[in-house]
Write a structure and sequence with these properties.
By secondary structure, this protein is mainly β. Helices cover 13% and strands 46% of the residues. It has one helix and eleven strands, in the order αβββββββββββ. Strands 1-5-2-8-11 form a five-stranded mixed β-sheet, with no helix packed on it. The longest helix has 22 residues. The termini are far apart.
């Protein structure tokens, strides 16, 4: 093979890897509803970032929606039909720091409107010892218990109106 063909193969492999990396790192959108794809103005979008709260609070890591776990490599934006949803989530322990330490695993219910893109941020607060609790997560078939000493209050912020253009 000549160098041009090898170069084209290498560039193709690199671009495929970048597209896969983009999907794994959460730069796209998952459609988390059943049925045919709907126009964006008929949907709600929640966006969360486990490392940053966009300067508005702590980052939020969503574990499940209506008891349905998100995929391992879930996107940071989720399109849903409007309505009420139970969100299982936790907050980044250190606002605007990328240390990967999460606190306050809990669930709450939020109501989403059609045609709205929401940013999910959290407010972390210390709990008095009388309110500490254990949370459980399953990872690779193993149940892990963690003593929660902090609360994480979810705050959906209306970010922008959705359009069908993208």
């Amino acid at each position: 093979m000549n160098k041009t063909v090898l170069g084209m193969i290498a560039v193709s492999a690199m671009l495929t890897g970048c597209a896969s990396l983009e999907r794994m790192t959460g730069n796209g959108m998952d459609h988390f509803y059943e049925g045919e794809k709907l126009p964006m103005t008929q949907l709600s979008v929640i966006e969360f970032n486990g490392e940053s709260g966009w300067g508005r609070g702590s980052g939020v890591d969503v574990e499940a929606i209506n008891d349905k776990p998100l995929p391992t490599f879930s996107q940071s934006k989720i399109a849903l039909k409007p309505g009420k949803y139970t969100i299982k989530y936790e907050c980044d322990a250190n606002q605007n720091m990328m240390d990967g330490v999460r606190v306050g695993l809990t669930t709450t219910t939020i109501e989403l409107e059609a045609g709205v893109h929401y940013l999910l941020v959290g407010d972390v607060s210390a709990l008095p010892p009388s309110q500490w609790y254990y949370s459980e997560q399953t990872f690779l078939g193993q149940v892990q218990r963690r003593l929660e000493k902090n609360a994480c209050a979810l705050r959906p912020i209306k970010h922008k109106a959705l359009t069908n253009e993208g």
